[in-house]
Amino acid sequence: MADVLQVEKREQLGSRATRRLRQSGLVPAVLYGHGQETESLSVSVDQVKALLRHHAKTVELTGAIKDTALIRDMQWDPLGIDVLHMDLMRVNLSEKVEMTVAIHVHGQAIGISEGGVLIENRHNVDIICPAGAIPERLTIHVAELALGGTMTASELELPEGVELVTPGDTPIVHVEEVRVEEPVEAADGETAEPAVIAKGGPKEDEDE
Amino acid sequence: MALMPKRVKHRKSQRGRIKGSATRGNTVVFGDYGIQSLDAGWIKATTIEAGRIAAQQYVRGEGKLYIRIFPDKSVTSTPLETRMGKGKGEPDFWAAVVKPGTVLYELSGVTEQQAKVCFARLASKLPVKVRFVERRTA
Question: Where does the Large ribosomal subunit protein bL25 L25 domain lie (chain A) (predicted)?
Fold first, then answer.
């Protein structure tokens, strides 16, 4: 079931008004799609945090606008703590949309007990599915994965109605041997200087 | 060899000023957990290496550590008891310029609890305040 989002229309636009809006505990948002007018909205910060906790993909809009929307994008502050802005796209829950979905690695690979380490090559994949049935995550079972083995996108467990957009041969996880890196030696005097790219030629000598 | 560039255009660089927050390299990309700088500063190549050793001794044989910063700035110094003048000093060490928000190290293949303990050990080596961060799900 989609989360319910109480939205208000935003009359004042621009960076100054938006900054004041954020200070008052609201998050600016925009609603677009289906060839209709673009609307500038505001949502309370608590509701946005709830959406993030629930990993919501689609929302039911109430308040100033009643519609169903897909969360298309979120902008974060540089430290990744606060949501600065949210993009909402109008959708019918039956229409097919392209989404990026997280991958959940399930099980303990055999290769780990053989002395390997499980490396995730990709953390998400692109899929096409009905907007009302977007999976929260796709599972890959790695229990049979041995040392040196690789599992690809085609081995993901896809729910009904979900098509994979990412090529099926894309590696998702593999188990490799643990590489213990030797500590680097301390720099010793003049030998520890990088080569200087000479002006106007491929010469790589550092003498000046 | 210590961490430093293989080739450079100029041996010496000006000190510069660190302004603003990181807009790139500020999310966890490779691993599951990361350590994010909350201050601006220079992190020496030797400090990066000390952090790597501290972390790898803890996760040995289990997880994989990713270093997200590279010391590409040369810092010069003049010898002690030298008179003023005679030009800029010789390169002394290499440092990575870090802004608030920069993800310094990442870890994968370990539990959240292990990652927290590991990064706590690593954080004690660093000259900047840091916080523990997780990868944002799609």
Answer: 5-88
Q: Mean per-residue pLDDT for A54-80?
A: 92
The burial of A182, by beta-carbon neighbours within 10 Å (0-12 exposed, 13-18 middle, 19 or more buried), is given as exposed
Which ipTM value was assigned to this complex? 0.83
Number of compact structural domains in chain B: 1
Alpha-carbon span A91 to B131, nearest angstrom: 38
Residue A195 phi, psi (nearest 5): -70, 145
CA A27, CA A40: separation in Å to the nearest integer? 11
User: Residue B45 sits in a domain of what CATH number?
Assistant: 3.90.1170.10
Residue A42 has pLDDT above 70, yes or no: yes
Residue of B nearest to A196 (CA): B8
Contact B137 A184 (CB under 8 A): no
pLDDT digits (tens, 9 = 90+) for A112-150: 888 888 889 999 999 999 998 899 899 999 999 998 899
Of A54, A53, A7, give the one whose Cα is nearest residue A26: A7
pLDDT for residue A86:
95
Who among A80, A100, A183 is closest to B53 (CB)?
A: A183
Q: Which residues of B touch A120 (CB under 8 A)?
A: 32, 108
State the fold for domain A3-91: Ribosomal Protein L25; Chain P (2.40.240)
pLDDT in tens, A165-205: 999 999 999 998 877 666 666 555 445 788 888 876 555 44
Give the model's pLDDT for residue A200.
Answer: 67
CA distance A10 to chain B (A): 27
Q: For residue A117, give how far its alpha carbon lies from the nearest alpha carbon of chain B (Å).
A: 6
Domain assignment of residue B15, yes or no: no
Note whether residue B13 is domain-resident: no
CA nearest to A27, candidates A80, A99, A76:
A76
Domain hosting residue B58, numbered range: 33-73+93-134
